[in-house]
Input
Amino acid sequence: MNPLLEIIHITLLSISRALFNFSFIFVIWILYLLIKKYKSVNIYNFDNSKTVISALVESILQGIIIGIIGSLIIAIIGLPINLTYYLIFLLPLALMLSLINIRYLCFSYAASVMGVLSLVFRGQTVFGVNLPDININISGLLALVGILHLMEAILIYFVGADDPIPIVAKKDGKIVVGHLMQKYWPLPIAMLVLSSGGVSNSEIVQMPEWWPLLKDIPSNISTYFYGLMPFVGALGYSSITYCEEPKKRSRKTALRLMVYSVLLIILSIYSVGNIFLQILGTILMAGIHEGMILYEQYIESKREPIYTVPKKGVRVMGVNRGGAGDQMGIRVGDIIAKINGINVLNTRQYRAILKNGFTFLWVDVIHLDGSLDTYEFKAYPDGITDLKVRLIPENPRIIYRHQSVQKIGLFHIIRNRFGR
Output
């Protein structure tokens, strides 16, 4: 068989085993709870967002596709992770960290903790106590996290801004509307592992003898083989923006993640046998990731929000597909200033004007860039009483604090699901 086709065949075989693993089902259940919690934020029904099930199915399919791509990259780069019992704690550790804050579900934090433990616990004896030898290949761990984030960056760039939920919040004493973006993907992936036969290898798909191209073999192992082990993880993206359009924000985040992932992959290659670079990589793995999040939060605190309650007119925050507003060309963020020459002062007057059931409308609209447009709509013979658009309420029933929306842990979600 052609060498490349052989690698693809073995990778797909390993991925298929991950799909029928209990861990994969468990991760899907967790993601179902997360997506359901995310959808519950849309209390004003600003837009026609996807259902929980359709969003979950979409995430599963995207996760499988990106998992196959990532697994092929892992096999080609060829930096293995030593197969030890402690490796199975990577996913549970990520889930434990997510109890604190959902963004800690990301493997960069769990892998960083595992890297520190691997550097500290090397089987030494301290005060007569034999410490465990965790012995995880940190270079391989860096490669794994780097590749996972490269896959995450690709997903965020293309679908990160799909289905954002507008939320009403109070920022600096003003009612504003931002966009909450949360995406989660189950990730079946095939990790390249180095096994000495000491761990149960029933789930490992053995690689051909000529692979991998880059071998990192510990000197204390005389009998070993390389294999692809099915592994189940999760990728997540969570961001909230008041000062940028969702697509613009998600693509900026994706580009920063790409730089981060390439840096980790380079570190993984050059850190083989270099303890200093391994320590540096372990620190940067979580440090840079957290720094990127804090940077986005800093930007949000300094810039002015885009969507505010206007002094005159009403601002559109949702446009129903196929409705009159959509047919006219009204878009999210537009301010409806006049209807049939009548000044629109607030949402109450907006509804009162439309109650007249005009058979012909001309609507003056102010766009986000300050430009003006007049749209027309004919509704013969019945007239029209609803443009099928959602507006920012002047006196919202529920508002979120700007700082609180993302400070949600998995513990709170599970507690709300099953009661206190």
Observations:
- The first strand starts at residue 81 and ends at 82.
- The two ends are 58 Å apart (CA to CA).
